[in-house]
Input
Amino acid sequence: MVNRKELDPEKSRSAAFGYRLRTLRDERGWTQDELAERMGCSATHISAVETGRRPPTPRFASHADRVLGTGDRLERQSRALRHTALLEGFPEYVTHEARAAEIRLYEVGVIPGLLQTPEYAVTLQADAVRREAITPEQASERVALVAERQATLARSPAPLMFTVLDEGCLLRPMGDRATMDAQFARLLEFAELPNTVLQVAPFRMGARRPFSLPITVLTMPDRSLMSYAESAHRGHLERESNFVLPILAAYHQLQAEALSQAASVTMIEQLRKGTP
Output
């Protein structure tokens, strides 16, 4: 344990991968030399990955999963590293989202990715390309990730999903009428699922709205909690229950003040018909 470097998983995506790799190795009581021997690489290579100095290749991550018996957890996390168009912290969040037992979403301004139609997602990213915020390649990367995240929800048992949309998500047009019509239809289908709740937070809530920015709260299979929020430049994944519990309480307050699902569905149906 001499000269053992402290790792900060929040520092970067590579650091988060390295932290998980070391944790898994420590749980098995293996040294870097022992893991390296099992994987057929050098201990220097293992050290570089664990400390975030060398990003893992998909082949390295897949091999590590086989040696450590972790399914495809490391491989999925390494794939997230390739999403260069994403905010710092988001790829790590996605790995937890894929395993969550319950997902609570609150979104402002746009339909959240887990509920977007492909056409809506393409239109949203095309505007980012127009503004030169991202490249066309990065736009394609973001759209592909939306599809990947939605695919992870098709598991058994399916996660419970509670979604509250600020009214602005519905009123902000995205693309042509057909794009919005399909998106509204997707929301109505979502509301019919047995594992979902969909609500709208109307503008008239005013100051009673507890959040001004999007927020996500995950309940993991072991009932632990984590929250995810974004600033303009990076995302933050919070695991400390002392910080997450107040956010969860505020989310419940938001649900209590928002429209019921029945009223929310009626609003979406009226918007789809073009009536106020």
